[in-house]
Amino acid sequence: MTTILISGAGIAGLTLAHWLRRHGMAPTLVERSPSPRDGGYKVDIRGAALDVVERMGLLDDVRAHSTDIGRGTIVDAAGRSVASMDGDTFGGRDHDDVELRRGDLTQLLRGAAAGVECRWGDSVVALAEAGDGVEVVFARGDTRRFDYVIGADGVHSATRTLVFDEPDAFHDLGYRVAVVAVPNDLGLDREEVTYVAPGRTALVYSTAQSTKATAMFLFADDRPIPADPKRLVREVYADQGWELPRLLGHVERADEVYLDALAQVHLARWSVGRVGLVGDAAYCASTASGQGTSMAIVGGYVLAGELATGGGLAGYERAMREFARRNQALASPNLSRMVLGSVRQVRTALTMLSVLGRLPGRDRLAALAIRPIHRAANAIELRDYASEVAR
């Protein structure tokens, strides 16, 4: 039986583990975190990824965990509503897409991968080709051999660093994103409120799955990620209006603040010998694309299918390359709308949004705006690998 080590028990790794086992292979997961992490920020599942989730038998469960956000509003510095629209339009979704919390999705995927060995609180520290396999040295000190090793360990992939000689693969887009759980002081009921200022955006949302709210800060900055994320967020948003003073107080008191660079990964190849990469480790598109979760799900499905049907790592890359390219291309235009560079751009955008909100054809115009996302989300034809394996 083909043995495969997957480094990373996130969305890509868990999807891959499910399909590998379903195709008759023997996956093992290794995850640096000592235990699963639930909750977290919201993510979207669109296009081809919905087909994968349905083939996993998880679509009804995924829909049951929807954030159910019904309204999105943009406010100015005084807190006045400038524009408001339904939650799907606000989030760039059509009505088949699903938005849910990342932790809820990973919990469902862990259920789909139940029974797969997972080494929690461990990591890979060395890899070496050994004939028709790979010798793996773990942080705990033991060594095991696998037929393949797959890095599903995110944008800062240790697997990529260990094996791939492409030091320029990580492309910092010049923006930072911070996320923190906060009290629902605004009394939001499954809704999202966004504040826009030059070079920085802040938003707060509540979901159907939590009594608390989540605050997200997205801003232009290319400095290295500091050891103290709270200090950087305070510095960037210190002079802003709306509810920012209150939100910064919550940031200061929070147990944990997630802060990272918005970045993409561009590699000349996604595999070296019997070591491959999947998800953000291979082709991160960044949060700005809105497609990172869907790409991880589709990538895990395609990689497992190609390994099971003889296409191997090369076949997986051929099947996924154009899909990844098209989804990565979404990030730059999306960022230009998400973070505005000047006072004039902010004023113009708020005026246009205010006018758009009163137009009779606003829903049609909004649908045109999000069409590129959905074209990219469906830019791959999924093979029915399960039927091919069964034959």
TrEMBL record:
Matching InterPro entries: FAD-bd, FAD/NAD-bd_sf, FAD_aromatic-hydroxylase
Keyword list, A-Z: Monooxygenase, Oxidoreductase
Pfam families assigned to the protein according to its UniProt record, in alphabetical order: FAD_binding_3 (PF01494)
Key word Oxidoreductase present: yes
FAD-binding domain ranges (all copies): 2-308
EC class name: oxidoreductase
GO molecular function, one term: FAD binding
Listed EC numbers: 1.14.13.114
PANTHER family to which the protein is assigned, alphabetical: MONOOXYGENASE (PTHR46865:SF2), OXIDOREDUCTASE-RELATED (PTHR46865)
Name of the molecule in the record: 6-hydroxynicotinate 3-monooxygenase
Species, as recorded: Occultella aeris
Taxon lineage: Bacteria, Bacillati, Actinomycetota, Actinomycetes, Micrococcales
